[in-house]
Amino acid sequence: MKRNFINQEELSDKFWNIECSGKRQAITFGKAGTKGRETIKEFADENECIKESEKLIAQKIKKGYTEIPENGEVPKKKELSENEKADIYFWEAIEKSNKYKKAHWSEYDVDEHIENLTDHLSKFGKERMILFEKTLQEKLAELYTAEIAELSIILESNFTNENGVYTFDNYLSDDGFLYFRCWLLLKGKELFEDIKSNIQSFVNGKYSFDIADCWAEGLLYVADDAYAQNHDDEESIIKDTVYELYPENDYDGMERSMNREPKGGADLQKMYPKLVKEIGELRSISTPK
Predict the structure, then answer these.
(1) I want to staple 140 with a disulfide (CB 3.0 to 4.6 A). Which of 71, 109, 120, 251 is the partner?
(2) Which CATH architecture is the domain 2-68 placed in?
(3) What residue spans define the domains of the chain?
(4) What is the pLDDT of residues 171-220, one digit of tens each?
């Protein structure tokens, strides 16, 4: 048995080949275009060798490797644009610094996540931190929509419930909405894409959150704090540099308009029945009588 695999997802460009001969297993792996490294392992018999090799193959496929047909050519890695790379760096940093991504909401701590993210970024150079801050501002701007504002209102604003009809106060502060969008970004790329498509994805069963703590102001200072860990005499240099390089970035809404005016009152229940029902019931339970 001889099978060859390659992983060219996002920034990856790696190969992994496995060959079984009797009870001997040989694996070669490394960066595409190089000789790579080789590991040899022997098993008790041929059946065990094949069984364990198939387990490894399944694991590699799960991690994004695809098989190259016998005698097939290795495809050339598609070059990514700087914006594509920045996007990957951004979400990779968010994901890797969240130690409780799959845990119950009660185990997650936003301040710990931000601290871990700061430590993660501090290991890189100034250029990577600038890319992170630039991408952060762009993602915050993408979430500056009426629909995301309505999600914030449903999760945070005062409301009444009369005979199952939820009526929301549609007050939304500029700072509060900014901190809310920061909190959403810390939840990762999958949620970001889901709620941009439909905010009712927030209650699709895939996510676990503490809806009583929906602000993450600290995300706004992560890049500068990360840089300051290794440069004691520098303050706010990353944010200032991004402002100088990309003055068109307007993530706080000071100079931009939403796609429409956010709704409030009883309109939100008509627009988002599933979301309002589930969040309204949860908030009713947690709100003191």
Answers:
(1) 251
(2) Single Sheet (2.20)
(3) 2-68, 82-286
(4) 999 999 999 999 999 999 999 999 999 999 999 998 888 898 999 999 99
Q: Residue 263 is encoded by which pair of tokens? A: 């709704």
For 121-150, how does the pLDDT look when each residue is reduced to its tens digit (9 = 90+)? 999 999 999 999 999 999 999 999 999 999
Find out whether 1 and 43 touch, Cβ atoms under 8 Å. Answer: no
Joined together, the tokens standing for residue 127 give 């250029």
Q: Is the confidence at residue 71, as pLDDT, over 80?
A: no
Structure tokens that stand for 224 in this block: 């500068």
CA 58 to chain centre: 25
Q: What is the mean pLDDT of residues 85-111?
A: 89
What does the buried/exposed string (b/e) look like for 7-17 if buried means 16 or more CB atoms within 10 Å of the residue's CB? bbeeeebbbbb
Q: How many beta carbons lie within 10 A of that of residue 76, not counting itself?
A: 10
Residue labelled with tokens 């390659």: 6
Structure token pair of residue 177: 């909405």
The amino acid sitting at 50 is I
Q: With pLDDT > 70 as the criterion, what percentage of the chain qualifies?
A: 97
Q: Which two tokens stand for residue 82?
A: 């700087």
> d(Cα 122, Cα 169) in Å, to the nearest integer?
41
Query: In this model, does residue 288 exceed pLDDT 60?
Result: no
